[in-house]
Amino acid sequence: MVSEEDLEAVLAELHQLRNRVPQLTGALAAGVDGLVVAHDTPGVDPEGLAALTAAALGVAVRVADATGNGGFRELLVRGERGYVATYAAGRTAVLTLLAQDRVNVGRLHLEGRRAGARVGELLDAADAAARQARRAGRPLGAVSTTPPTTRTRTTRTPRAASADARTATDS
User: Fold this and answer.
1) What angle do CA 115, 119, 125 make, to 5 degrees?
2) Of 43, 48, 83, 106, which has the most beta carbons under 10 Å away?
3) How far apart are CA 38 and CA 6, in angstroms?
4) What does the alpha-carbon distance between residue 156 and residue 131 come to, in Å, rounded to a whole number?
5) What is the maximal distance between C-alpha atoms in the chain?
6) pLDDT tens for residues 50-81?
7) How far apart are CA 119 and CA 95, in angstroms?
8) What is the pTM of this model?
9) Integer CA distances (angstroms), 92 to 81, 82, 146, 170, in order
């Protein structure tokens, strides 16, 4: 569970990215499962884009694995009128950018990689905090003055998409 504050930080990063690269027409942060985290995509359905990104990510992860090229880092699609670039954003998220055909692709990659790393840091930290809160047996943001007396362990089943489509953001 991502807090409202974390979501606002991700959205702020997307807005700043669009300001730094004026040729961007949209930016989307999504989980590898195809669910939207935050978006700045005027004129584009964010849920549809996130779902398509997850499908493309699944293929890209398999291609990288089949060729022995390691974990997924990025995917670039060039259409007649522009680019769609997807970057790893932490362990379980991706950043998808939409850009005009006249964008400087080197700059797109530079800024996309940086923003992907930043979004990944934010989402991974939020995920770690949520897991810790669940382990402690209290909702995210709740403060307990006494330690828990008993702890129950729950079995988690991994989501199919996130189990297969982990991303790698290490340099």
Assistant:
1) 145
2) 83
3) 10
4) 12
5) 62
6) 999 999 999 999 999 999 999 999 999 999 99
7) 8
8) 0.78
9) 30, 26, 33, 13
